[in-house]
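Structure ticket #2291
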Amino acid sequence: MGDIRQSLLPRDVLSAAKELLYHLDIYICNLVQSGRQPPQVDSKTLDLIEEFILHAPKDRNASARRMSALQELQLLEIMCSCFQEQSRDTVRQLMFSALFGLQGNAADESRMALLGKLVSMAVAMGRVPILECAATWLQRTHRVYCVRLAQVLVDDYCSMVPGSVPTLQNIHSASPRFCCQFITAVTTLYDLTTEELTPPIELLQMIVSWIQEDPRLVLITFLNTPLTGSQPINSLDVTPLGGLVRWCVKAPLAYKTDKKQTPTHERSENVPEVGPLFSTLHLSVLQVLMLLPNILNEKGLFGRMGLLQLDSLAALTSELSRLLDQADKHAHASAADAHAAPQLALDRLAQALQVAKANGALLCSREDMRAICSRLPHNNLLQLVLSGPVMYYNNIHTPPLAFSPHAAHSPIASHPALPTHAAHSPIASHPALPTHAAHSPIASHPALPTHPAHSPHTPLAALPASHAPYPAQPFITGMPFPFRPNH
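Resolution: structure written out below.
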């Protein structure tokens, strides 16, 4: 494509960009049809993209060409039309990568600026092909740039334009893959270390509602990732589970010390309390973890691949220890309140560790768990998890141990790590969970006497349709925007 540069130079900036997109579409179609593996866009084509779409000057002495705001909006509409009209996903993915794949040069800033505007427009217009390409981009790109894209969307839909949150919320149904990657990016961005890095209440509400409606949503990237492929270095985690656990554990202390929180007597009736939201989120995360044995067994990965990494949990316990020290030094509330928040944080950590390890999400020894929790103060539930020989839990809110048609007619099997007589052990709920979590998974005391053998229980009912594997998402077809140049 290097020979078309001379024909692009006399054109105005918008016309040149439009012409180049047209030729880029034809070039990549031919590249895919040639059967070359892997298909790769050549450097001359990338140079043309930087010069005529990203407007990076060809040499240092040349002045950069600039688009007006109106021309940039027109270019974004042309791009939306280009991706919408192209029916082959391979061509779309290659074109998206050619346009927005980071090259490590000065044009990357222009790439990120244009990408943020394009994805924001795709969210507003429901352009599924672009959201699907952006999901792949988020999976392959350094996390620093992924959180920048997430920040643009949060600013556009949760901060700058009042009432626009429902528009962003629709990505759950439009592109579940992008929604999953977006959750992973925002949980990486907002780590609750400062007031600025605390998620907006509208964003928190939206994520809680997504996961409540479909717990498997946070596993979509993992389910769609080829087992043979390795994650790029410093990319986002394959699931947002680690970030969600961090949110739930740190929330009682982080929000307690947030000076910008609205006083109770000034809160609007429409603004929910963050406490119940995080309790609901915590319960949802535990339920997602309890889905993993079935999924990991189907993939042959149970006991071989953990979705929660020990080093991430070690970093979390270190942050939690610091927050607990600060809470002790700056305690200004009543003694009961000052004690409740730290204990709630420790309870949630214990529950997450217990359920993650019992369901194959965390692969480590109990000695490793004791080591990363050694600096934390005493907590009864955490002590049980760290010292108990076996962790019992019930399966009331979980589907059968296989997602096959035959699983609906078989009783729940005991976890391979549990002794046979423990499969039906009753467990009491813990007060740290919301009231509706009466059957949530909590560690039982290791000193309980041995129970007599139980008679077999009645098989569970058939798996509800809401837990069926995610269907393939058809591309939405809308009114096309012509991107073919006028000759």
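Closing remark: Residues 328 and 339 are 9 Å apart (CA to CA).
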